[in-house]
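re: ur question from yesterday

yeah so i grabbed the chain u mentioned. its 134 aa long if i counted rite. heres the sequnce exactly as i have it in my notes:
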Amino acid sequence: TGEECDGWHMFGDQTWCNKAMKKTPGVLALSFGIEERDLFSEYMSNYYRVPTKLYDCFIEPEKSPPMAGTAPNGTKKCDQNSGHCYETQYQSYRVCLGPERVKVHGRQYVTLADTLKGRGPLSTHVKIDVEGSE
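ran it thru and got these structure tokens back, copy pasting raw so excuse formatting
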């Protein structure tokens, strides 16, 4: 409920429980299916100061600055009009989410369990936007 969460924070079609988003050491955001730009991971980085890991095996790196490693990566303050930008460190992987760890048609897949291994309770925020393609 809103009371249990100490209110809600909304951004586009995403809603966060305020209490769950209090700054906690070791928190990480994982974003699967980022395509050219991933507003979820940028918002997690720039608003909540959470480092992110980005996963997409379909988008060509030259079409996605975060996948190419050319988006600012924890090196400067970002504003809403600055384009692709991360105030905290991000890591990008040409990997997709799947039911098992496997390589298919040259694409590497990992499971959600693989990416969450070693993560503690309530330590990871996850966005999955795979549009049925993985």
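noticed a couple things. The first strand starts at residue 8 and ends at 11. also The beta strands are 8-11, 14-17, 28-32, 52-55, 90-93, 95-97, 102-104, 107-110, 124-128.
anyway ttyl
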